[in-house]
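Extended Data, panel c. Modelled sequence:
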Amino acid sequence: MAIGADVTLAGAVLGLANSSAYGHRRGRIATIDEAVGKLGFDAIKKMATGMAVLRAVRGDTEGTPNNMKLWEHSFASAMIAKTLADKDESDSQGTLYLAGLLHDVGKFVIVEYFPECMPAIMEAKTLRQEAQSLGADHAWLGAKVLSQWTIPEEITRIAQAHHTVWPSRAPYDHDEMGDVLAVQIADGLALALGFDSGLLDYFPDIHNDALAHCHALDSLDPTDLQEAVRAQVMEMKVMVGVFGGRDVSPSAEATVDTGPRPPINYVSVESPQIDFVRMWLELSQGYTVQDHYLDCASEDIDPDSPVIVDASRTDPRPERVAQMRALLSRHRGVVIADEAWRQHISEAACDGWYALRTPLALRVLETSLTHVINAKPPDS
């Protein structure tokens, strides 16, 4: 089919060709021929594939809030994944764009074809609970759907693995592991920058040794990225028309006055290479974040302001356990940690503390943080 004969695809192609995601800076590209020259046939083929898949599964639900947020999250993840690709390899850029666009296709399937499961899924706190309510989690379901169509196996495997905890013994080759990692990072950055899917979202649980392989992170500026992605998502929404003619201009977006927010003390056990939760607090939620390290967190921390302790991807060494217990005794807040910390946190935790396991669900963090902020200090 000719690109120009499909208004939605033509709009997407022109929108992407004119976006900064493809390095466009001046002189608007106005024709399909110019866009093809800019993007290349391979990138357009992958875009067409991705758009066709999402259009096939969106059904009549495109006007629902969940589906709108899913589209935004998918676009944002695709654009961020592409920026993480090797700038000298156009094939890698196209692959990561498509993988980012389709990584959550299972969620589109759930919204469209399993509406009766939505209440249970919206209450789920883990992928396991999601799978129990549906019979499979969205990553497995998305991969199953993609495998039935003419989608490259590489994209299907990335969709299935995008919640893998690294390092992993999953049977992926080195290059494919890099692509999975890039999509996971893009997914996490999309959440951190405010583009959640409206369903069960997870901050990726990635060790620093794995993150070290993604060299594009070295030059990443979160604030600049947020502004660029926001503009690109808005442009793509308008050009593609995924919301059935709904006004999606910035002035039409709902704005909520959240009022003054208390500063949050963010206590790290170790320094992560990229901290999705901290980024989310500052860039998406508008909190003022005060940084501390566990080994030097002192009683100077204001007892009236909430504390988040990030112990994820760390070992519960005896000195750390002692420092954690001291902190828990003085303040209220949230601890983010994996299973290795579970017993130590349970022994030390008091009222006003929430222990959250990794991989961390965004909705669980939001709920726990709301309770902590609204709670009285332990000694009051």
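The longest strand covers residues 264-268. This feature is highlighted in the accompanying rendering.
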